[in-house]
Amino acid sequence: MAGQSDPQSSVFSAAEMEFLAEDEIIEVVPNMRMEPLNLISGDYGPFRPQIAAQVPLWLAVALKKRGKCTIRPPEWMSIESLTQVLESERDSPKEFQPLPFHYVEISRLLFDHARDDIPDIYMVRSLIEDIRDVRFHKVESGLETISARTHAVKLKNLSAMEVNIVRPFVVRTLQSFYKHDSPEMIQQPVQMSTSRPQATDRGPRRDLRRR
Amino acid sequence: MASYYDIDDILAEEEFIPVVFQKAATGVGLLDPSSETNNIEQGAKVELPFWLAHELHTRQAVVMSIPSCFNQMTKKEIQADPGSVDLRNRCQYFYELGCKLAPMVSDRTIGSFLLYAFKNRYKEVLSKAHTSTFIASTKPLTLLTKEETHLCDAAQSSMAAFKKWRIGGSRFERPAVLGKKRKPSDE
């Protein structure tokens, strides 16, 4: 994709992920009066004092910096829903809970720019940290299951930042496994003197391993 | 994956392979340190770098045998405890060389042996690459081959980049031209 900082490794930098996350829509409550903004991505506004408006995150941050609005933290950033997500993350060792695709980036942007708009910011912040840790641990234990017959990895509900972190490693691993498992490399599955379970009973090469 | 300019691919071909000459060769005595004349006799055992052995092999001048890193002893060790075998010391380009060697030698098990070694070493060492801290991981890192080191580096650098972003710091980099004072022009 054009505009990546490191085209060789097919990975976005964290700052680039943050940039992409800034297009997410968020609710603000302006304290000024302004005509609607007609942008390429859509029309936002009109802005009336105390009337909530939907704007992209970058616009919300820009208005917030100038003291023109307060940001309403999204539904999922409340303590109740985060606690619930954390509990179900811990309960189900295989599945990921649905969270916004950019939850890591959005939460950091809000923590940086709108601390006074988030109630119980310390609690929310540590909950999100915990959720991220639990989820990443799950990703890592899932990585252990990659083996020679894995040809694709299904990661439902994984967020952008989490995918981006494991991307270089997973791509290289799958490439290596593919190289060493190719039919030219394994000529005849000759049994060695000791047990070699993977040499026998080789199934067809296209199975999609569920995670 | 291997491109013409891939330095690892080039270096992997520098590894020495024991070969047996099928034909006598004149004028290449320098390849065999033990030869007294400038010739190599038929049946002489010599160690040649892979790129040379490969060329001679295609012309059926030599027969390749298996280098020490693929011998029976190494296989036994890897079957016993894949994660703690020091493959870097034996052959840095274990996997790359094995892939190149596999179609050319009589031992048909090299391909599946490579897969077995990679699979089990991956499970023991590499799948922990993201969270293992640098201090804890220095010891296993010395055992890894080039390919495995690349994997570990990929994992750790992306994790380090993420942590750096999370801790934050200045979001905008100030361009170098902005802070400078304008030089008074002479005119």
Can you characterise this structure?
The complex is a heterodimer of chains A (211) and B (187). Chain A contains six helices and five strands. By secondary structure, chain A is mainly α. In chain A, helix 2 packs parallel to helix 4. The radius of gyration of chain A is 23 Å and the shape is elongated. By secondary structure, chain B is mainly α. Chain B has two domains: 1-65, Ribosomal Protein L9, domain 1 (3-Layer(aba) Sandwich); 68-168, Methane Monooxygenase Hydroxylase, Chain G, domain 1 (Up-down Bundle), CATH 1.20.58.2050. Chain B is 45% helix and 10% strand. Chain B has helices spanning 7-12, 50-58, 72-80, 87-90, 94-101, 110-124, 134-141, 146-167, 176-179, and strands at residues 16-21, 25-26, 39-40, 45-49, 62-64. A three-stranded antiparallel sheet of chain B has the order 4-1-5. A two-stranded antiparallel ribbon of chain B has the order 2-3. The relative contact order of chain B is 0.10. The A-B interface holds A 9, 11, 13-15, 18, 108, 112, 136-137, 140, 143-144, 146-148, 161, 164-169, 172-173, 175-177, 179-181, 184-190, 192, 194, 196, 198-199 and B 1, 75, 79, 95, 99, 102-103, 108-109, 111-116, 118-119, 122-123, 126-131, 147, 150-151, 154-155, 157-159, 161-162, 164-166, 168, 171.
Radius of gyration of chain A: 23 Å
How many discrete structural domains of chain B?
Answer: 2
Q: What general outline of chain A do the C-alpha atoms trace?
A: elongated
The greatest interface between two protein chains, and residues involved on each side, is: A-B, 43 and 40 residues
What's the N-to-C terminus distance of chain B? Answer: 59 Å
Average pLDDT of chain A, to the nearest integer? 82
**Number of helical segments with 4 or more residues of chain B:** 9
Which ranges of chain B are low-confidence, i.e. pLDDT below 50, for 5 or more consecutive residues? none
Strand content of chain B: 5-15%
Q: What's the overall average pLDDT of chain B, rounded?
A: 80
Specify the oligomeric state. heterodimer
CATH architecture of the largest domain in chain B: Up-down Bundle
How does the major sheet of chain B shape up? 3 strands, antiparallel
